[in-house]
Amino acid sequence: MDLTDSSVPLVRDALRETLRPYVDDLTGVSCIARGSDTLFAEVVLELGGRLVVVVPSKDYRQSKVKPDHADAFDRLVQAADDVVVLDNETANRAAYEEANRTLLHRASRLVAVWDGTPPSGKGGGTADTVQEAREAGFPVDVVWPAGAARG
C-alpha cells in the first residue's frame, strides 16, 4: 500500500510481464486494497482476464477505503466477475488474514508484490501470505522490480 509514486509504473510493468504468459486463461483474485492489490487487478483486466474481488469484511468499503481510493475500488468492484464479501462484521487483522487465506484457496498460484521484508508478527501481511503459500507448496511469483521502493 505504500509504494512510492515512481514505483507504481515499475510495478505495473512487472505485473504485466509476470501475468502475460497466463492471458489465455487468466483469473486474478484480489482484495483490491490501495496500492499493489489495485495495480494487480487493473493489469488483470487490462490483459483481458477475469477479476474476483475478495472483500475482508462487511464494513470494509465504509471504514477502510479512503476517499483517494474510493473511485478505483468501486470501479474494480463493478468490473469484477465475482465479488466475495466475507462474513466478518469489521475490518481487522483477523479479517485480513481470512481474506488472504480465501485468496490462496481460490487461486492456483500467488503473485506477490513484495520487497522481501520478513513477516511483522502481526499476521495478515504480504510476507505472511507468501510464507503460508510456500509452506503449502503453492507456486509463488514475487514481483519487486529494480528501482521499486516503499514510501
UniProtKB/TrEMBL annotation:
InterPro entries cross-referenced by the UniProt entry: YspA
Protein name per its UniProtKB record: Uncharacterized protein
Species name: Streptomyces caelestis
